[in-house]
Amino acid sequence: KEIKIYSPATIANVSCGFDVLGVCLDNVGDEMIFRQSEQKGLRIVEITGADLPLEIEQNVAGVAGKALMEQLNPNFGIEMIIHKKIKAGSGIGSSAASAAGAVYGINALCGYPLTNKELIYYAMQGEALVSGAPHADNVAPALLGGFAFIRSYAPLDIISIPAPKELYATVIHPQIELKTIDSRSVLKQTVGLKQAITQCGNLGGLISALYTEDYDLLGRCLHDEFVEPKRSLLIPNFAALKQVAVKCGALGGGISGAGPSVFVLSRGKQIADCVASEMRNIVKEADYQCDIHVSPINPKGI
Ligand code: HSE
């Protein structure tokens, strides 16, 4: 028995939802293949597209997959092949795609004993390996689609939120690698009361805008008081890239996950394409390569 899956890229934080909000992209993702084997246990037999370890304990997909295998204890083994298309350290959930894909594929080969929501916990174990914190704001939207909101980590309480239908994301990935663990290490561990109030207002407004498809409100809420002031210093041309949203009439944007990718959300593809071309102009002269994706929101996840 063999199954092939597509594990999507995601934007974590979405500006004001640090560690508690993420959204699933539609046309960027990894391919993964899972096969039953006679030899029990989990093995990664091949990885293409990235120089990543095959050892289970050192691989995000391996750690997440093993955690699930221990829970399900199937009477067969599983071999996993990973074709990485999302670059590591890009800020669009590369490690999450591996972790979420691994648990989804294993669960599928076992006959779907767990729901995708139940799989999130196991996928988070993989995230912990690379980022130092088992955050769920990439793995949850990858497994559930649309927007995923983490109301609480202990106990885990995750709410799936549908995406407004005309919403598009433009994501630029400057090809410098920024590891989540490093990008987390620059953050302050405390926030001021005034900042917290502003952030709560924006996050509440953003959630409301998603349900009511109020694009103007959504745009007003795309601000971040907590991490952007620190992390933006690590991203070349950040202010100019974000400013493109205003020029094209987009809703707004910020840092995608831990960076260095920068995202802008737009109502409709035409504006999202304008954002992409203006971003391209900004980085034309730069001495580093960039990938730019324009994507609708993936409503289903893996
Ligand atoms: N919420 C996480 C962070 C996402 O910003 O560190 C990492 O992709």
Automatic annotation (TrEMBL):
Domain GHMP kinase C-terminal intervals: 206-280
Membership in a protein family: Belongs to the GHMP kinase family. Homoserine kinase subfamily.
Job of this protein: Catalyzes the ATP-dependent phosphorylation of L-homoserine to L-homoserine phosphate.
Keyword field: Amino-acid biosynthesis, ATP-binding, Cytoplasm, Kinase, Nucleotide-binding, Threonine biosynthesis, Transferase
The reaction(s) this protein catalyses: L-homoserine + ATP = O-phospho-L-homoserine + ADP + H(+)
Gene transcribed to yield this protein: thrB
InterPro entries listed in its UniProt record: GHMP_kinase_C_dom, GHMP_kinase_C_sf, GHMP_kinase_N_dom, Homoserine_kinase, Ribosomal_Su5_D2-typ_SF, Ribsml_uS5_D2-typ_fold_subgr
The protein's Enzyme Commission number: 2.7.1.39
Protein source organism: Myroides albus
GO cellular component, one term: cytoplasm
Nucleotide-binding is among the record's keywords: yes
Pathway: Amino-acid biosynthesis; L-threonine biosynthesis; L-threonine from L-aspartate: step 4/5
Positions of transmembrane segments: none
Gene Ontology terms describing biological process: threonine biosynthetic process
GHMP kinase N-terminal domain span: 65-146
The protein, known as: Homoserine kinase
One of the record's GO molecular function terms: ATP binding
Keyword Nucleotide-binding: yes
Localization (cell): Cytoplasm
Catalytic EC class: transferase
